[in-house]
Design brief:
Among the domains are: about 1-160, GAF domain (Beta-Lactamase); about 175-195 and about 320-405, Phosphohistidine domain (Glucose Oxidase, domain 1, 3-Layer(bba) Sandwich), CATH 3.50.30.10; about 200-315, PtsI, HPr-binding domain (Enzyme I, Chain A, domain 2). It starts with a helix and ends in a 12-residue tail after the last helix. The strands form three sheets. The protein has an eight-stranded mixed β-sheet with strand order 7-14-13-9-10-11-12-8. The relative contact order is 0.07. It has about 750 residues and is an alpha/beta fold. The protein binds phosphoenolpyruvate and magnesium ion (MG). Phosphoenolpyruvate binds near residues 466, 628 and 629.
């Protein structure tokens, strides 16, 4: 039975035509259960009814025409109860409704199961039989299992807009959900872009003139290098951070002996330049795609992008430039970083990538450019999107296709408010972050990925609260040496030399990995991550600490922070390694110059729930705490922060999360240990206000949020925030916290700063 079930679901999810797929589905179920009738009804939520879509056993004329209200008949009952209904004689059931057009009078036995995806009833599956008997347990279990599995396939079909249930020709706004690439809102026409050249369609072939092919490749290579140089030069004027490294990586690859040699070797074997390129690129892509690691899989996209660029420069096809709308949301199967670079000055206001994740270079670049983006939208009918209007909500990770006028005007209002605020907010940049009644806090930035340091200084950051050192480790082919790390950290420390900089030791594992240090695990967030890895590899840890200490030599603004601490032993071990590095380096430097090596403060991140119960013990060992609320939320709520299926459960405003944060602030105060927070919650005005009321005096956030948060702080009264917190802490569920905060922020005149989640 299991094989049949799997086959039915597989065939259904692979079908391209919904009607045919449904017809095949009902016939297969009917024969698997050896019954006389099987039918499927799909829910039309707009009109609140189920429509008979396909059946093997009911009258064909009724398909697509017969509908049953959500509260009507046995179908409605299955939908309402959200459970199977198994009746020996349906016609005697009080909810039975006679619908002569479906011609079901001869059936008595009825079994209906709901098809539910993420708590939403998508439809009802039924089997019927002439004999008056209840279906047995195995039959019922089969139908229930099948419905549960079908739900996922059906939900994706629904998302792809293949289900057009309403017969009227009215356009319905469809909404697609993706993964957050970059926050913000864009409203405008979508422009679907296809790669100018597509290596995947090249048929490999051999040619005679090898020299000619070598020169074709060489010309294409130098043209491509020149393009990348031009792109990064252009972008350097707008962004100053390491998100531009991708262009250097591309250039390095083009200059690298391996890549070029492999292509030329193939040409020398007789392959055409295009074929030689395809063979090499496909080889690399296959290797990357086969890896489980998300970061490494993303590199396959980079290689494909590079291949297509080279191919385009080999083919030199002069394309008729298509007229572009003045402003557009760029949509592509795979929006590459180079596509973003090419379009960013041509009216690009938003990005939708069908594939990709938020660790892709596209997302990194979009954040740096402050362009809203959503990735991994998983939508098949991409061509249909061209020239359609859309709203891209990078906060809620949603794309609304052909939105209604009402929705557009709602979003236009938010957008206009955002723009107006921006100007207002900028005025506060160089003013202190103090409430109207004089309570001051420090606002610092999280850096490593998106921060252009100059920009951060401009927005008035009081320092770096979290420098994620793993980010500069990413775009490389091996661990950076002590000298390289020293130079890098020195740059960071000197750009903020009169302000504190907290560097976190390498925090790879979980969702962050290094191409040259793959970690393949079934449960990476509960696995080998952060301090667990670096304690297992003291050589990596010591080298990093030495580099940090060296960089700090002569500056003195460094603090070191340990990620993913879950026990005191880890702290002891890490501190002992830090001491070892310190004394070794001190003696090396003393031999040279007799100088003083500053001793940085050492702190721990509070992000694993176990440490909440050891704060006192920890306080004896370290100089400060910093709350990683992103991970703390994930681990407290047992919700994978990157899993879209449970995304709605991952919520910083969950009462348990807020109470834990409050507890940490209170305990730290009792222990007289400085505590800061560096998770995303501090980026949100509502979150920041709650945190300040709890007693957090140092908030670290993305550079782009800082001015906004500061402006909000400058417009509230600390006293009022404490009353607000007292009320919030009494609430018992997340939705109540959302609506309470929404109401209060509006009351405080801060309605325009409400984060999408609180809408
Ligand atoms: C956190 O967990 O809140 C945090 C700041 O660290 P990261 O997001 O890098 O895991
Ligand atoms: Mg973390």
């Amino acid at each position: 039975m299991l094989t049949i079930l799997r086959r039915i679901v597989l065939e259904f999810s692979q079908a391209s035509e919904l009607d045919q797929a449904l017809m095949r589905l009902v016939s297969q179920i009917k024969s698997a259960l050896a019954t006389q009738c099987c039918s499927v009804y799909l829910a039309d939520h707009q009109n609140q009814h189920f429509i008979l879509m396909a059946s093997n056993g009911l009258a064909e004329n009724a398909f697509g025409r017969t509908s049953v209200g959500f509260t009507e008949g046995l179908i409605g009952l299955v939908g309402q109860r959200e459970e199977p209904i198994n009746i020996a004689n349906a016609q005697q059931h009080p909810d039975f409704i006679h619908a002569p057009e479906v011609e079901e009078d001869h059936y008595k036995a009825f079994l209906g199961t709901p098809i539910i995806h993420q708590r939403k009833v998508l439809g009802v599956l039924t089997v019927q039989q002439e004999d008056a008997r209840t279906f047995n347990e195995n039959e019922e279990a089969f139908l229930v299992t099948l419905s549960a599995q079908l739900a996922t396939a059906l939900a994706s079909v629904e998302a792809q807009g293949m289900i057009e249930l309403s017969n009227n020709n009215q356009r319905h706004c469809k909404s697609l959900v993706g993964i957050g690439g970059s926050a913000g809102i864009a409203i405008g026409e979508m422009m679907v872009v296809h790669p100018k050249a597509d290596l995947s369609v090249i048929q490999v072939s051999k040619v005679i003139d090898c020299d000619q092919q070598l020169s074709t490749f060489e010309i294409a290579r130098s043209r491509t290098v020149a393009e990348f140089t031009q792109m990064s030069e252009q972008l350097k004027k707008i962004i100053t951070d390491n998100s531009l490294d991708i262009f250097d990586v591309y250039k390095q690859l083009l200059d690298s002996d391996n890549f070029t040699r492999e292509i030329t070797a193939n040409i020398e074997k007789g392959w055409s330049a295009e074929s030689a390129l395809k063979l090499v690129v496909d080889g690399y892509v296959m290797q990357f795609e086969a890896l489980d690691d998300e970061y490494l899989r993303e590199r396959a996209y980079d290689i494909k992008d590079l291949g297509n660029r080279l191919l385009n420069n080999m083919q030199q096809v002069v394309e008729q430039e298509q007229p572009k709308p003045k402003q557009f949301i760029l949509v592509a199967e795979d929006v590459s970083a180079t596509m973003v670079a090419e379009h960013q000055h041509l009216g690009l206001i938003g990005i939708v990538s069908i594939t990709g994740s938020n660790s892709s270079h596209t997302a990194i670049l979009a954040k740096a450019l402050n362009i809203p983006a959503i990735m991994g939208v998983d939508y098949l009918a991409i061509r249909q999107l061209d020239k359609q209007n859309a709203i891209l909500d990078g906060y809620a990770c949603q794309l609304y296709i052909t939105p209604s006028d009402a929705l557009i005007s709602e979003y236009q209002h938010i957008l206009a408010a955002e723009t107006a605020l921006q100007a207002q907010v900028e005025e506060a940049e160089h003013l202190p972050a103090s409430t109207t009644d004089g309570h001051s806090v420090s606002l610092l930035i999280n850096a490593g990925l998106t921060a252009g340091f100059e920009y951060s200084q401009n927005v008035g950051a009081d320092g770096i609260g979290l420098y994620r050192t793993e980010i500069p480790f990413m775009n490389r082919s091996c661990f950076p040496s002590e000298t390289e790390q020293t130079a890098l950290y020195k740059d960071v420390l000197t750009s903020f030399d009169s302000k504190p900089v907290t560097m976190r030791t390498l925090d790879v594992g979980g969702d962050k990995s290094l191409p040259y240090f793959p970690i393949i695990e079934a449960n990476p967030f509960l696995g080998w991550r952060g301090i667990r890895i670096t304690l297992d590899h003291p050589e990596i840890f010591l080298l990093q600490i030495r580099a940090m200490l060296r960089a700090n030599y002569g500056i003195g603004n460094l603090s070191i922070m340990l990620p993913m601490i879950s026990s005191i032993t880890e702290v002891d071990e890490a501190i002992s390694l830090i001491n070892q590095a310190y004394y070794e380096l001190k003696s090396e430097l003393l031999c040279d110059e007799g100088a003083i090596l500053p001793r940085p403060k050492v702190g721990v991140m509070l992000e694993v729930p176990s440490v909440l119960f050891q704060l006192e013990d920890l306080a004896k060992k370290v100089d400060f705490f910093s709350v990683g609320s992103n991970d703390l939320t994930q681990y407290l709520l047992a919700v994978d922060r990157n899993n879209s299926r449970v995304a709605s459960l991952y919520d910083f405003y969950h009462p348990a999360v807020l109470r834990a944060l409050h507890y940490i602030a209170q305990e730290s105060e009792k222990l007289s240990l400085p505590v800061s927070i560096c998770g995303e919650l501090a980026n949100e005005p509502a979150g920041a206000l709650l945190l300040i009321a709890m007693g957090y005096n140092q908030l670290s956030m993305s550079a782009h949020s800082l001015a906004k948060v500061k402006w909000v702080i400058r417009h509230v009264e600390y006293r009022k925030l404490q009353t607000l917190l007292t009320e919030v802490l009494k609430l018992t569920n997340t939705a109540d916290v959302h609506s309470y905060m929404h109401k209060e922020l509006v009351g405080l005149g801060l309605g325009d700063f409400i984060h999408a989640k609180l809408q």
